Amino acid sequence: MTIATVISTAGGNGFQPPGPADFHLPPVFAEVTKPMMLVVLAAVLVFTFSYFAARPAAVVPGRLQYAGEAVYGFVRNGIARDAIGSEQFLKFVPFLFSLFLFIAVNNYFGLIPFIQYPPMSHFGFPLALALLVWILYIGVGIGKHGFGGYLKHVTIPSGVKGPVLIIIIPLEFLSNILVRPATLSLRLFANMFAGHLLLMLFAFGAEYLLFESQSLINGVAGVLSIVMFGAVTVLELLIMFLQAYVFTLLAATYLGESLADEH
Amino acid sequence: MSESLMAASGEPNPLIPHLSEIVLGAVVFLLLVAAIAKFVVPRFEKAYADRTAAIEGGIADAEQAQAEAKAALEQYTAQLADARHEAAAIREEAKEQGAQIVAEMRSQAQAEAERITSTAHAQIEAERSQVLAQLKGEVGALATELAERIVGESLADDERQKRTVARFIDELEGSAN
């Protein structure tokens, strides 16, 4: 917001660059806002797609089932089995599959025309998901090792002995228990927030430069701004997938660590 | 909460989460997980399991078919070997039989030839003895006749005597011819 105010005062002549305020939309009705509706819509879409993709359960899949299996197999084999191990991964597949598709669909809402809003740019949603992951992996760890055993499992790396533990234990506790939900949620939130801000900046900038000012240089800058908007859109396509993937992969990794016998 | 923050700084702080969003996000997501776990994952897993079973079944079928084909081939080979063996035996037997038949025929032919020869001999012997008997009779008669002639025509004349004997012998030869 400081950058935004700096630009707006330096520009001086009326262009208001987009800022955090643009994420704060008025409620659609009562207390219900657009991102809230989108989150529900995303859950409905994810379930509808996977339900109809999974329902045939045919040995020779149709197109929809094939598409569903591609995503399902990607999460099941590419994320869950690799990170958790082939013995126990299956019971976490529903959670991780939902996590991946839910985040991905929410992210891509940022690029879909007329929706064009990524709900994960509201910190509350990624935080909710990160807290669920946090509760799950700690719960799984305690379930496997017991409370004391889990604390020991998390804070003492195998093979470390002696006075160095005085430093290691608080550090490990901090990084494994306290920092993880924060980084997990912030990474997703910041990527979506910044990406959407960037898109808005180039879109609003192009509009202002092309229609609100008369000089030729501003017109050229406006066209450039449109080009940049396209480039950032392509970049966002990648980032939106990547963030869903990273979030799911880290969640699976944390679960795998909780279930591991050795640290 | 965010309203007061907005009032304080002029813009909302995006890092302050809305409690309503945390709750909504968690509830919606948990519902989604429950629905996916109940309706989606079992179906996908069933498809996976069915596919694995189908592929394994296919492989087992193929292996069985191959084993059957191999067994059939072995059987045919064995039968073929048997047939060859049998054919060889039959050929051998035929050869033996042939040789036997030839030997039999030969001995038969020999016996026949001997029989024919012996009958011929016997016939010749019979004819000879017949001729001999006939000759005996005739020689007597001829001798008598010759003696009569010699006696009848003057036995004294040596010359005549010789001529008579020669003429007799000529007549004999002529009658023999």
Structure characterization notes:
- The complex is a heterodimer of chains A (263) and B (177).
- By secondary structure, chain A is an all-alpha fold.
- Chain A is built from eight helices and no strands.
- Chain A has one domain (14-259).
- Chain A has helices at residues 2-11, 34-54, 63-84, 93-108, 124-145, 147-155, 165-211, 216-259.
- Chain B has 177 residues and is mainly alpha-helical.
- Chain B has one domain (2-176).
- Chain B is built from three helices and no strands.
- Chain B has helices spanning 2-9, 19-152, 158-176.
Topology:
The complex is a heterodimer of chains A (263) and B (177).
Chain A: H1 2-11, H2 34-54, H3 63-84, H4 93-108, H5 124-145, H6 147-155, H7 165-211, H8 216-259
Helix pairs in contact in A: 2-3, 2-4, 3-4, 3-8, 4-8, 5-6, 5-7, 5-8, 7-8
Chain B: H1 2-9, H2 19-152, H3 158-176
Biggest chain-to-chain interface with counts: A-B, 50 and 40 residues
Q: What is the tally of helical segments of chain A?
A: 8
The Cα radius of gyration of chain A reads: 23 Å
Q: What is the gyration radius of chain B calculated from CA atoms?
A: 68 Å
Oligomerization category of the chains in this entry:
heterodimer
Order of helices and strands of chain B: HHH
Q: Structurally, how many domains make up the residues of chain B? A: 1
Low-confidence stretches of chain B: 1-9
From the spread of the alpha carbons, the general shape of chain A counts as globular
- Tell me how many strands of chain B there are: 0
Q: Which structural category do the helix and sheet elements of chain A fall into?
A: mainly alpha
Percentage of β-strand residues of chain A: under 5%
Mean pLDDT of chain B: 86
